[in-house]
Design a protein that fits this description.
This protein has 279 residues and is an alpha/beta fold. The chain has eight helices and ten strands. The protein has a single domain, classed as Vaccinia Virus protein VP39 (Rossmann fold, 3-Layer(aba) Sandwich), CATH 3.40.50.150. It is globular, with a radius of gyration of 17 Å.
């Protein structure tokens, strides 16, 4: 539990950094995020891992500009980008459940770190976009898999993987039809892309129904949630996922709050809800 507390403290520090950043940022880019230049007391991250997070951003054509700035007296690199082309591509598929809108790179790392701390052996990122969560899991030494229905985003993942030499398995397919028996899953954490109210419920339900065919005894499900009043409230709470969690008899483990591209101008950040398979 001490290790979990350390990961959650890291998340809290990133949220503080994000809120300070939103108050001083005066740019006009479509997306923007920050990564500390080096590890520190507030961000006690393996320096090699931190370098690889910067490498991901520098190898990703989504980001077209970067500069150094001090946020809360912490030297950071600000990355500015544009996801409009990829967002439009991601909604053209009839079976697509949620448009591409990424979490922050450091948020992806912290989420993956919590999954590893909870002793999951593999990470499967459903609706993996540009692959940042699967990438971070691989940086941490986990077996990781990205499943993305959009070919352009899948090619982007593979391009970044080739450039960074961080190689994970990237699949271009419908995750609700994918043959999970083709990969070695012993205790995986499935990350579901998209808020419950933005197509995530349909996607997550489809995945949970489908993986019943593979007799997985131990697995985790991680959902991106929100408490924003802009979205409909689930009567059972849990950041929009309560009804689905109850329907599939999932067990709550923890919730961690982290910045994402879609919460940059929002007072509330994204709630990542960690659950595990029924007992």
């Amino acid at each position: 539990m001490e290790k979990v507390s350390l990961v959650k403290e890291l998340a809290k520090n990133l949220v503080k950094l994000k809120h300070e950043f939103t108050g001083v940022y005066d740019g006009t880019s479509n997306i923007q995020e920050i990564i500390p230049v080096s590890n520190s007391e507030l961000f006690a991250i393996d320096p090699t891992h931190l370098d690889l997070l910067h490498l991901f951003a520098n190898s990703n054509p989504i980001y077209y500009h970067s500069y150094e700035d001090k946020i809360l007296d912490i030297p950071c690199i600000v990355y500015e980008g544009d996801i409009n082309k990829y967002w439009l591509n991601s909604i053209q598929h009839g079976s697509s459940r949620a448009p591409f809108s990424p979490t922050w790179i450091l948020s992806a790392y912290i989420c993956s770190l919590l999954a590893q701390t909870l002793d999951y052996k593999q990470l499967v990122d459903i609706g993996s976009g540009d692959g940042r969560i699967a990438y971070c899991a691989k940086v941490l030494g986990m077996d990781s898999y990205g499943i993305e229905i959009d070919e352009t985003l899948t090619e982007l993942q593979r391009s970044i993987s080739n450039s960074t030499k961080i190689n994970y398995v990237s699949n271009c397919t419908d995750a609700t039809l994918f043959d999970y028996g083709s990969i070695c899953l012993t205790n995986p954490a499935f990350f579901i892309g998209g808020l419950a109210q933005m197509g995530g419920i349909v996607l997550a339900g489809g995945i949970l129904d489908h993986i019943r065919n593979y007799s997985l005894q131990n697995f985790g499900m991680v959902f991106a949630g929100t408490i924003s009043e802009k979205y409909s409230i689930d009567p059972l709470g849990k950041s929009g996922w309560g009804t689905l969690i109850d329907k599939y008899d999932l067990q709550m483990i923890d919730t961690i709050v982290l910045p994402t591209a879609w919460t940059f101008r929002e007072p509330d950040d994204t709630y990542y809800v960690f659950t595990k398979s029924p007992p």
